[in-house]
Amino acid sequence: MNMQTTQAPVRPFLNWPIATVARARPTQVALLGLPHSEPYPGNPHPNDQARAPDAIRWQSGQFCDGQEHWDFDLGAELSSVLPAHCVDFGNMPWTNGSYDEHALQVTELLASLWGDGAQVFILGGDHGVTIPALDALAVLQTPVHILHIDAHLDWRAEVSGVRRGYSSPLRWASEKPWICGMTQIGMRGTGSARREEFLAAQEYGSRIFTAEQIHACGIEPVLATIPQGAAVYITVDADGLDPSGMPGVLAPSPGGLRFEQIAPLLRAVSQKCKVVGMDVVEVAPSFDASNAMTCIIAGRMILNVLGASWGNAGAYRDRK
Ligand SMILES: [Mn+2]
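# manganese (II) ion complex -> structure
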């Protein structure tokens, strides 16, 4: 199979240079938009979340008012910590062919980026986009711990016969031998999980923290479940955050995590561990506030991981 060419974004993330094919440029940090995943029967395709990659990129000037300006989250200018080669790989199209073929193309591109040692940021799409990324992590040949931020558990083995939909990414992760464990935070209310999925996650050894537990005890107990120095993949479902701050989601659930809880956690993980990749999924631009706050928070979460990973105490600092 020939490597799929991606579509250039309307505006690149932070105005980074664009590449539309693997290995077109030297790459230390890659950003990739994944609008598509395997749809459930009866769900719209493409869905609203498919618009999120370009909607988030469009807010680059809002979530970073100049890369040479002092960033108080990072305690430095973003430009002073970023490595030389940050590349926006545009959006992976799914124009024809089966979902199997599309997923293989996504996995192939991500595997080439990870194989070359890049740190990878993914803009979804719905939570199904995490699944081909989990497959691609095999190329690292190292155990990977998952940090999952979401209102929902996402442990369904299948829904309506679909195994790779947005209700299944963490179940999928649990079946991969290169995924060594997971920490799931922000759970509350109800979602696709039933008693059997909750018990399966516990049986696997997933460390689950409800949003209430984090409001009560803070992020330190979460951090303690993530092994020092581990390779970590972070998957953020936008509905893990509280909809009062992050309204642009399809499944708003009250009592969620706040940015001021998430940002220090993301920075701490990026220093304690090597965050090999991160996705932000389930942003639904049609439901966002008129000031695009959901997209701005999505961008700020990525900048916190990026800045902390490559900054003074970060796991990538020696590779600049
Ligand atoms: Mn989810």
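# post-check
The chain has a mean pLDDT of 97.
Residues 12 and 88 are 6 Å apart (CA to CA).
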